[in-house]
C-alpha cells in the first residue's frame, strides 16, 4: 500500500469520525447546544483537524453533499448521453433528471438515522434551510450546464431543473419519515408524466 493511499485512508477516517460525532451530538442535544470543540473531542481529533475538513459547524450537516452531487452528476451525464440531443423536449429533460435524482438519493435509505437527524435539523433551523437552498441553486446551475451540453435548449434545461427542485421541495415538506423522501420525490415526478411533450 502506498504512503499516499494510507494518508488518504487516514484523512477519510478522520472526516468520517467528525461527521459521526457531530450527528450523534446533534441527535442528543440539538444543533445550537453543540460546539465545534465538543464535536472534535467526541471524534478524538483536534479543532485544527475539524477545520481542515469543515469551514464551520453548519457545513458538517451537509457533509454528504459532495458524494450525492458526484453520483447525481455522473448519472445525469450518462442519462443525458443516452437521450441526446434533448432539444426542446421538457419531458426528456425531466426523465434525465428523474433518473439521476433517484440514484443520487440512495444515501437517504442507506443511512436512515443520519437522514432523520438531517431532516429534523433542517425543519428546526431556518439558517440551515437557507444554506441548503443556496447549495441547491448552485447545484442547479451544474445540472443546467450538463443538460445544455447534451443538446437541451437553455429554456428546457432551466425549466426542467427548477421543476425537479420543486419535486424535491415537495417531498421535503411532505415526508414525515425521512426514509420515504426518495419515494415521495418519485411520486412527485410521476405526477408530471405526460407534461411537456
TrEMBL record:
Domain HTH tetR-type stretches: 12-72
Where is the organism placed in the taxonomic lineage, from the top? Bacteria, Bacillati, Actinomycetota, Actinomycetes, Streptosporangiales
Q: What protein does this entry describe?
A: TetR/AcrR family transcriptional regulator
According to the UniProt entry, the coiled-coil residues are none
Q: Name one Pfam family in it.
A: TetR_N
**What is the species listed in this Swiss-Prot or TrEMBL entry?**
Nonomuraea antimicrobica
Name the InterPro entries for this protein. Answer: DNA-bd_HTH_TetR-type_CS, Homeodomain-like_sf, HTH-type_TetR-like_transc_reg, HTH_TetR
Output the PANTHER family linked to this UniProt entry.
HTH-TYPE TRANSCRIPTIONAL REGULATOR RUTR, MYCOFACTOCIN BIOSYNTHESIS TRANSCRIPTIONAL REGULATOR MFTR-RELATED
Highest taxon in the source lineage: Bacteria
The yes or no answer to whether the keyword Transcription is present is yes
Q: Any idea which UniProt keywords this protein has?
A: DNA-binding, Transcription, Transcription regulation
Amino acid at each position: 500500500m502506498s504512503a499516499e493511499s494510507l494518508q488518504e485512508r487516514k484523512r477519510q477516517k478522520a472526516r468520517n469520525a467528525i461527521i459521526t460525532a457531530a450527528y450523534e451530538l446533534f441527535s442528543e442535544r440539538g444543533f445550537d447546544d453543540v460546539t465545534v470543540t465538543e464535536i472534535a473531542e467526541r471524534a478524538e481529533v483536534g479543532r485544527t483537524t475539524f477545520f481542515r475538513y469543515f469551514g464551520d459547524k453548519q457545513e458538517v450537516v451537509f457533509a454528504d453533499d459532495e458524494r450525492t452531487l458526484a453520483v447525481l452528476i455522473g448519472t445525469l451525464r450518462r442519462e443525458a448521453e443516452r437521450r441526446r440531443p434533448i432539444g426542446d423536449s421538457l419531458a426528456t429533460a425531466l426523465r434525465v433528471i428523474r433518473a439521476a435524482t433517484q440514484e443520487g438519493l440512495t444515501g437517504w435509505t442507506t443511512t436512515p438515522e443520519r437522514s432523520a437527524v438531517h431532516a429534523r435539523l433542517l425543519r428546526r433551523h431556518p439558517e440551515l434551510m437557507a444554506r441548503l437552498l443556496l447549495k441547491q441553486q448552485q447545484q442547479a446551475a451544474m445540472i443546467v450546464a450538463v443538460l445544455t451540453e447534451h443538446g437541451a435548449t437553455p429554456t428546457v434545461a432551466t425549466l426542467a431543473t427548477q421543476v425537479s427542485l420543486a419535486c424535491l421541495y415537495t417531498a421535503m415538506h411532505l415526508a414525515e419519515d425521512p426514509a420515504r423522501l426518495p419515494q415521495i420525490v418519485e411520486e412527485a415526478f410521476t405526477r408530471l408524466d405526460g407534461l411537456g411533450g
